[in-house]
Amino acid sequence: MSETAARHALVTGASTGIGEETVRALVGAGWTVTASARREERLEALAGETGCDFLRADLTSDDDVSALVSHVTSRFPHVSALVNVAGGALGVDRIADASVERWQQMYEMNVLGTLRLTKSFVPLFTEQGGDLVFVTSTAAHDTYPGGGGYVAAKHAERMIPLTLRQELLGTPVRVIEIAPGLVKTPEFSLNRLGSQEAAEGVYAGVAEPLVGADVAEAIAWTLNLPRHMNIDSMIIRPVAQATSTLIHREG
């Protein structure tokens, strides 16, 4: 077996969008993959298409996270990459109208869910080597009106890889952040905005936004680099988006 073929990745948020495409990209590159998300029927369909392993899990549940870690580590002794894609945004409330409940939900989805799973793999990867990938957002690097809750959650999530990279210096662990800008993932926007019309409006006037496969290609590239190379942080935007252009639409 080649070095790549002998490696296994766990990908979260794999029922749609970037996570789903990352499973396809890694399987296509010769990896074995466990796909995880909350929607089991989507995972079953993806497994039927790609041959990936899968397990339903809600990362806001300690029990689900424990079951997922046990499943992966018991079945795949060569697990060497965790790709944290799961997350999401709720609403576009301005600070004066902010819903504390929605902020808490976004913090759970984007920060604490990522933390629960990541900390479970740090001891294993510290011992045998491995890659921790965090798919954040350009919202983790900037801000925009109506994005306070999501921006705050993504900034907090980004602190996990930034801190880990210092704490794990000298170990065989690579810590990678991928920060996409405007990606056409309609389910993300639908969940955030609540209507199909509003979700489609996010991409109005943008000739060619990114799609999930674009980001997945970048993730696979970072994982397949020689072990002495680490992509600390990669920002990916469509050509139509600059730092402050369309930032209010990004995901």
Could you characterize what this model shows?
By secondary structure, this protein is of the alpha/beta class. 45% of the residues lie in helices and 15% in strands. A seven-stranded parallel beta sheet has the order 3-2-1-4-5-6-7, sandwiched between helices. Helix 5 links the parallel strand 5 and strand 6 (173-180). Helix 1 packs across helix 8, helix 3 runs parallel beside helix 4 and helix 4 (100-128) packs parallel to helix 5 (148-167). The longest helix is centred in the middle third of the chain and has 29 residues, at 100-128. The radius of gyration is 17 Å and the shape is globular. The termini are far apart. Residues 244-251 have low confidence and may be disordered.
Low-confidence segments, given as residue ranges, are: 244-251
Proportion of strand residues: 15-25%
Mean residue pLDDT: 90
Shape descriptor reads: globular
Q: What's the topology here?
A:
Elements: E1 8-11, H1 17-28, E2 32-37, H2 40-50, E3 53-56, H3 62-75, E4 79-84, H4 100-128, E5 130-135, H5 148-167, E6 173-180, H6 186-193, H7 196-201, H8 212-223, E7 233-236
Parallel strand pairs: 1-2, 1-4, 2-3, 4-5, 5-6, 6-7
Structure at a glance:
By secondary structure, the chain is an alpha/beta fold.
List keywords for this structure.
single chain; 251 residues; alpha/beta; 8 helices; 7 strands; 15% strand; globular; disordered C terminus
